[in-house]
Write a structure and sequence with these properties.
By secondary structure, the protein is an all-alpha fold. It is built from 3 helices and no strands. The chain starts with a helix and ends with a helix. 18% of the residues are buried.
């Protein structure tokens, strides 16, 4: 698995979410970013990487952003 590709895709999902003018599309991109963050974290945990702990914060931050997006624009 190419970890750099996973990082790159995660960043693209976040950038697309920030650029979205539609609340529905923003939420979709945030869900994609969350899914990617989970994939990165699982990969790192499987490899015993200490960096996996940092992805817990990214996942929690993403969940908060998604909740805020849904509350603001529902």
């Amino acid at each position: 698995m190419d970890l750099n590709l996973l990082y790159s895709e995660h960043q693209k999902f976040l950038m697309n979410a920030m650029a979205s003018t539609s609340a529905k599309m923003r939420a979709r991109h945030l869900v994609d970013a969350q899914t990617q963050a989970l994939s990165i974290r699982h990969f790192q945990l499987a490899e015993g990487a200490k960096a996996a702990a940092g992805w817990t914060r990214a996942i929690n931050d993403g969940e908060a952003q998604l909740r805020a997006s849904r509350e603001c624009c529902a």
